[in-house]
Amino acid sequence: MIKVDVSQILARVGDSQPVSLVVDAAAIGETAPWFDGNVTVSGEVINLGNSIRFNARIVGRAKLECGRCLVAFEQPIEFSLEEDIESEEIDTAAGVLDIAETIRAALIFHEPMQPLCKEECKGLCFHCGIDRNRQECNCEQKPIDPRLAGLGRLLE
């Protein structure tokens, strides 16, 4: 849980308050995080009357594995977050707002589907498994349809 004290801004619509936190994976309930270490969350919460707007900038580092060549690499994480949290989700009696799930969802949303070490990554050879970014192999790059293999023997 990541609780933010919003008791100061609940009384007046339009009031805001700064938020600055360092968040680890355990605090947001992530058991297998894609980011490395902690992320920094800085921004503000604003009372909109029937909801609280949470504006933040999330910054950190990611340790990823390339989807083409399987090389481990690091990449910066930096994105903006704007989320309206409905009043039902706010503990008004205690004057606190739990933003753990909001941060967790934003990090999951920004996780790359196929991380690449570089845009022009050549990946691994399908036949011998060599990293084609480091050296070339002599494998035939065009896979032959097994149904046409007999025709290929005629050309030999």
What does this structure look like?
With 156 residues, the protein is mainly beta. Helix content is 11%, strand content 37%. It is built from 2 helices and 6 strands, in the order ββββββαα. The protein has helices spanning 100-110, 149-154, and strands at residues 3-5, 16-23, 35-47, 51-65, 72-86, 96-98. The strands form 2 sheets. A 4-stranded antiparallel sheet has the order 2-3-4-5, with helices on one face. The longest helix is centred in the C-terminal third of the chain and has 11 residues, at 100-110. The protein is elongated. The N and C termini lie far apart (68 Å). The mean pLDDT is 88.
Q: How would you spell out the order of helices and strands?
A: EEEEEEHH
Average pLDDT for all residues: 88
With strands numbered from the N-terminus, the spatial order across the biggest sheet is 2-3-4-5
Helix content: 10-25%
**What's the alpha carbon Rg, rounded to whole Å?**
24 Å
Task: Furnish the topology, listing elements before pairings.
Blueprint: E1 3-5, E2 16-23, E3 35-47, E4 51-65, E5 72-86, E6 96-98, H1 100-110, H2 149-154
Antiparallel strand pairs: 1-6, 2-3, 3-4, 4-5
Question: What would you say about this model in short?
Answer:
This protein has 156 residues and is mainly beta. Helices cover 11% and strands 37% of the residues.
List keywords for this structure.
156 residues; two-stranded antiparallel sheet; 11% helix; 4-stranded antiparallel sheet; mainly beta; 37% strand
